[in-house]
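Cross-posting from the chemistry board since nobody answered there.

I work mostly on the small-molecule side, so proteins are not my area. We synthesized flavin-adenine dinucleotide and want a rough idea of how it might sit in this target. Sequence and SMILES are below. Is it possible to get a predicted 3D structure of the two together?
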Amino acid sequence: MKKIVVLGAGTGGTAIANKLRKALSHDAWEITVIDKDDNHVYQPGLLFVPFGLCSVNKLIKSRKNYISNGINFVIDRIKRIDHEKNRVETLDGEFEYDWLIIGTGCRLAPEENEGLMDEWGKNAFSFYTTETAAALSNAMASFSGGKLVMCVAELPFKCPVAPIEFIFLADWYFKQKGMRNKVKLHLSTPFPKCMPNWPKGSDVIIAAAKSKNISLSTDFALQEVNKEGKYVLSYSGEKIEYDLLVIIPTNAGDEVIVESGMDDGSTFIPTDKHTLKALNHKNIYVVGDATNIPTSKAGSVAHYEAEIITHNLLGEINGREPEPKYDGHSTCYIVSEKGKAFLVDFNYDTEPLFGKYPIPGIGPFSLLKETRMNWMGKLGFEWLYWNVLLPGKNTFLPPTLVKAGKKEQPDL
Ligand SMILES: Cc1cc2nc3c(=O)[nH]c(=O)nc-3n(C[C@H](O)[C@H](O)[C@H](O)COP(=O)(O)OP(=O)(O)OC[C@H]3O[C@@H](n4cnc5c(N)ncnc54)[C@H](O)[C@@H]3O)c2cc1C
């Protein structure tokens, strides 16, 4: 019996395991998936929790219900990957493999940010985990006015558009409460132009931020959170005062990657950006946030990669070379208020452009344009996630970017 072990039953790991189970004979291939718990969190929904638009318990489902029959699902903490001996050690056991897929994602590491733990849960909150999002929801509800700063500590971090969505929704939220004039909203980001390297997309988003009276600091890499002075300080000396700090702390790969000597020095795994194989490992693929490839750490990326990895791994099993197919494709909605959103679709070489998605010229979604239909897409994505993507079903959408219909300028 040949063995495939998948580390992490998150967005990428679950989809790949389910796809492989459909494709491989049960008699010849054993598939094991390991995760530390049975709680699969729909992470995009965490954005809505601080604004009372969603409760945390609606976002959590049992992983078991999304892992196909015929897959061995183990709940245990992964301690070490012995890549020399093709073996994974967990707290309670050991698992040998012929092929390994690593989908251990990334975690928040607020302890890496100087001064942050002094304010964590008091005046500084995040919305990136169920616990922190719920705590931030209480802090938002009791905020009586002042300076709210949304600060991204450093690159890389998962879902690069989430801080923009947060500050846009904060504008909507305080307007609804009739107290927008009492709140100063500020976004600080390490990106040079508010978003990743997207000149056109950044211009569109910066214009939207201006129209909402949101101020912006770019190239802001966090040096320190200062509890006494109630400010955040960047390495270049910029100081921003806050009353309520919403922060995306350092994002790091899981400890197991570092302890197994598999990271690139920045806690992420060196990965071929086109084949998605771990560099220097002939029988290991890496999916999602755990990689060091230069595209967004995003669920859409993990879904597209899951298709490519399944294709390449099945090819290798059948004696073919892995194909350099992945192009960095990522697709993200950007909520601009309750009821409206933008959409971006891009890859390593093509920045977000204007046009329609997914059917060129038709849509129904609009790229780099704020529409109600995009908002419907953002909400509808949750259904797609649980019912189509995680179970590893075919979406009939290509995992790579479709350039047809993309335009340098918006329609007049
Ligand atoms: C607030 C927020 C909003 C987001 N919005 C969007 C969005 O709108 N669109 C989008 O595309 N993406 C979005 N994302 C990003 C998206 O959720 C992630 O990029 C995606 O889930 C990554 O998938 P993954 O499989 O790499 O990791 P994950 O889904 O995080 O899974 C990693 C798994 O590994 C397990 N694991 C890790 N280490 C161990 C260990 N040592 N032992 C056992 N198990 C372990 C974890 O328990 C986890 O289940 C958002 C994220 C956040 C936080």
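Reply from a structural biologist on the board:
Welcome over. Reading the output above for you: The CA atoms of residues 275 and 324 lie 4 Å apart. The chain has a mean pLDDT of 97. Happy to explain the token format if needed.
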